C-alpha cells in the first residue's frame, strides 16, 4: 500500500477542514478522536452507540423544549402587579416596541433554529434507525450543521440569570416551570453535541447508495 | 513508510465543506457539487479575504453606535433613564454584583473588540504571507469563531427585561436603538469569522516551502 494520494482511494482519506492537510482514515478505539497532525483540529471521533443515544437525547430535548416553550419562565411582582414572560412574549414585546429586526434575531436564535435543529435530527435519526433514507436527508442534515452556531439557547439561559440579578433589586422575581425545563434542555443539547458524530451520519448515507 | 505532508488542494482534491468527503477537483478548479451531501465544492472559501474584510469593517463601524446609543430606556415613577451597554456594567459593579458585571463586560465589550482585533490580525497576516506562529494563529481563529455567539447575552437580557418590566405606572422598560446596533455587531462578527478560511494561514507557509 502506498501513501501516494493519487493511488490511494479518496474514500480512505480525509482533508483537515482547517488546514487542508490530507490524512488517511484509520480505525479508532471507542471514544477516541482523530486530530489533524499539523493544526490539531478534530477530524472525527468514534462515539459509543452514537445513533441510539443521540436519538434518545433528541426526543428528550423535544419534550423539554415544548415545556420551556409553553410555560412562563419568569414572573415579576411589584406593588400588587404581576407580569409573566415566555420565550415568545419577549420577541413579541420587541416587535411591538418597534424593533422588528431585533425581534427577528432573538426569535431566530432562540426559537426557530432550536426547533429546526431538534426536528431535523429526528428527521434524520428516526429513519436511519429504521434502516430507511428519507428524501432530502443530506440537504436537511447539511443545513442543520450550517445553522448549528446560531442556536443560542445556552446563551439565553445566561441572559435569564443576568436579568434575574438585575431585577431582584426592584421587584420580586419568581422563576417558573420553564426555567427548570430550560436548564435541563441546555444539558440535553450539550449531551447531543457530544454523542452525535456527523461523520457517522455521512458514512451511513454513503453505504445506502 | 514515507509520509509526505500534502494538502488536498496540492493533490488536486477538495475536502467537502459540508461532510468532509474528499472529492476530485474538477479540471476548472472550483465548482461542482459534493456527491455525498450536495454542498458546493470550493478549494478555499470563495472570496474569503474580501468578504471577511467587508464584514469586519462593517462590524467595526456598527460597534460605535452600539456602544454610544442607549440599549434600554426605563421609565420608573415618572423618572426616565437611558442605559448603554457600558452603564449596564457599571450598574452591576455599583450594586456589588461583581461576577455578573464581569460576565457582561467580557461578553459585551471584550469579546466583540477582541474578535475585531483578531480577525484584522489574521487578515493582515495572511495577506502579508506571514510564515511564523502558524499553530498559534490556527488556535486564535478557532477561539475567535467559537466565542462570538456569547456576545448575544446582552441582547437576551434586554429581551427579557422589556418583556417583564411593564408594570403600568410602576415601571416601564423599552429597548433602545443601541440594542439593534449591538445585535448587528454580533451577527456581523459571526459572519466575518465564518467567511474567513483558516486554510489560507497554512497556504502561505506552503508556498514558502516550494
The count of domains of chain A is 2
Strand content of chain A: 5-15%
Largest interface: A-B, 69 and 75 residues
Low-confidence sequence ranges of chain A:
1-7
- Quaternary state of this entry equals heterodimer
Can you count the helices of chain B? 7
Shape, per Cα inertia axes of chain A? elongated
Q: What gyration radius of chain B follows from the Cα positions, in whole Å?
A: 22 Å
Question: How would you describe what is shown here?
Answer:
The complex is a heterodimer of chains A (209) and B (210). Chain A has two domains: 36 residues; 158 residues, Butyryl-CoA Dehydrogenase, subunit A, domain 3. Chain A is built from seven helices and seven strands, in the order ββββαββααααβαα. Chain A has a three-stranded antiparallel sheet with strand order 6-5-7. In chain A, helix 1 packs antiparallel against helix 3, helix 1 runs antiparallel to helix 6 and helix 2 packs antiparallel against helix 3. Chain B is built from seven helices and five strands; from the N terminus they run E-E-H-E-E-H-H-H-H-E-H-H. In chain B, strands 4-3-5 form a three-stranded antiparallel sheet. In chain B, 56% of the residues lie in helices and 10% in strands. In chain B, helix 1 runs antiparallel to helix 3 and helix 2 runs antiparallel to helix 3. Chain B is elongated, with a radius of gyration of 22 Å. The longest helix of chain B is centred in the middle third of the chain and has 30 residues. Chain B has two domains: 43 residues, no CATH class; 163 residues, Butyryl-CoA Dehydrogenase, subunit A, domain 3 (Up-down Bundle). The interface between A and B is large, with 69 and 75 residues.
